């Protein structure tokens, strides 16, 4: 079992943690997000800084075991992305073990098992968060995967399946006993979906129960929410999901705060440049205009919520049918807003 070697900064908050011999520095990681955290998004967030670890989108064990082209593309990462965690989901222990071996052979730093996905499609086949209702099967999966690979193995789950089955701490302990080396917990249950009332007690309970790193997840979007989560749970690090789409600098701002530094401010020029980076990098990667528009819009609809009066821009971008149209609307919006408004005082910064 790995010893926790979490380092803390001047505020007594974690600045880095270890998954076996891999130092995750800073103790802020980008969440796996299907359809979002592809190689382009991950590299963009990394290039900003403040991100200790990235995860691929979840990949079906069946597909990766069969070395399906699309699955291999999802598992693809760049040499500049280390450390990188590749996440798989499934319900068949043998299949999961074989898929994990493929991931190890691809050179991933860490293999992560998804036990948190609430999607009906995944749960209907007992994968994702449905595994939390089948502890024996979940434990067997961890055991078989552990035996199949030598790289570190981690598990990401929710606090439970529903309000009556909030069993993350018991599962975390069992997974640790089977050789898992890190646990991420999203405070919501599967039943909560993306709503629910904030209840982080199970993350704190996990932290008290196990000796491997616990990463806290759910609505961590800025330095304040990160600090609150870490103080209330004692977790070793935080994971940021949707917040990274709204404010790609949020991981850096959190990391700076954890180190006791003043978080950077984001101005409108930087926001405009970031929109173009999303567009340009996705176009370079996907090559097709339609596919680029799809990915761009998915991120832009979150990104615009952080821009003052961004609703108007969001609507124009989502209606756009071409890259030229996107550029046109972006130019008009920022030309107007840069000439009319004072520099953005980033509200995320403490
Ligand atoms: C678009 C989207 C896709 C997601 N895909 C995955 C996934 O592939 N694997 C996973 O473990 N969680 C997935 N999640 C859940 C996130 O990793 C994270 O647990 C959740 O969004 C809560 O964190 P947040 O409040 O910081 O967004 C996804 C979430 C979103 C919004």
3D architecture notes:
With about 350 residues, this protein is α/β, with parallel strands linked by helices. It has two domains: about 5-260, TIM Barrel; about 270-340. Helix content is about 45%, strand content about 15%. It is built from 15 helices and twelve strands. It has helices at about 40-50, 60-65, 70-75, 95-105, 120-125, 135-150, 170-175, 200-210, 225-235, 240-245, 250-260, 270-285, 290-305, 310-320, 325-340; strands at about 5-10, 15-20, 20-25, 30, 55, 60, 85-90, 110-115, 155-160, 185-190, 215, 235-240. The strands form two sheets. Strands 4, 5, 6, 7, 8, 9, 10, 11 and 12 form a nine-stranded parallel sheet that branches. It has a three-stranded antiparallel sheet with strand order 1-2-3, with no helix packed on it. α4 links the parallel β7 and β8. α12 (about 270-285) runs antiparallel to α13 and α13 (about 290-305) runs antiparallel to α14 (about 310-320). The longest helix is centred in the C-terminal third of the chain and has 19 residues, at about 270-285. The protein is globular. The two termini are about 35 Å apart. Residues about 345-350 have low confidence and may be disordered. Bound molecules: flavin mononucleotide (FMN).
């Amino acid at each position: 079992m790995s010893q926790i070697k979490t380092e803390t900064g001047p505020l007594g908050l974690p600045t880095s943690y270890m998954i076996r011999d891999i130092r995750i520095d800073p103790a802020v990681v980008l969440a796996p997000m299907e359809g979002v955290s592809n190689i382009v998004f991950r590299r963009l967030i990394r290039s900003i800084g403040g991100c200790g670890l990235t995860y691929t989108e979840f990949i079906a064990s069946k597909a990766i075991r069969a070395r399906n082209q699309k699955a291999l593309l999802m598992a693809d990462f760049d040499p500049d992305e280390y450390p990188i965690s590749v996440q798989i989901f499934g319900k068949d222990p043998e299949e999961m073990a074989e898929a994990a071996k493929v991931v190890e052979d691809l050179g991933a730093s860490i293999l992560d098992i998804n036990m948190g996905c609430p999607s009906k499609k995944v749960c209907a086949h007992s994968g994702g968060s449905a595994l939390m209702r089948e502890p024996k099967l979940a434990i067997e999966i961890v055991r078989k995967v552990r035996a199949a690979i030598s790289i570190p193995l981690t598990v990401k789950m929710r606090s439970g399946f529903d309000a009556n089955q909030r069993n993350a701490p018991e599962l975390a302990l069992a997974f640790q006993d089977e050789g898992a080396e890190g646990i991420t917990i999203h405070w919501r249950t599967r039943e909560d979906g993306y709503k629910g009332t904030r209840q982080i007690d199970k993350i704190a309970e996990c932290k008290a129960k196990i000796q491997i790193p616990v990463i806290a997840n759910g609505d961590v979007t800025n330095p304040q929410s990160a600090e609150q989560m870490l103080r209330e749970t004692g977790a070793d690090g935080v994971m940021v999901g949707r917040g990274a789409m709204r404010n790609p600098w949020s991981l850096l701002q959190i990391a700076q705060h954890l180190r006791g530094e003043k978080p950077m401010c984001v101005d409108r020029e930087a926001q405009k440049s970031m929109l173009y980076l999303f567009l340009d990098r996705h176009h370079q990667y996907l090559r097709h205009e339609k596919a680029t528009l799809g990915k761009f819009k998915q991120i832009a609809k979150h990104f615009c919520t952080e821009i003052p009066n961004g609703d108007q821009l969001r609507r124009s971008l989502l209606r756009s049918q071409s890259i030229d149209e996107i550029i046109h609307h972006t130019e008009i919006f920022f030309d107007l807003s840069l000439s009319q408004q004072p520099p953005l005082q980033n509200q995320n910064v403490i």
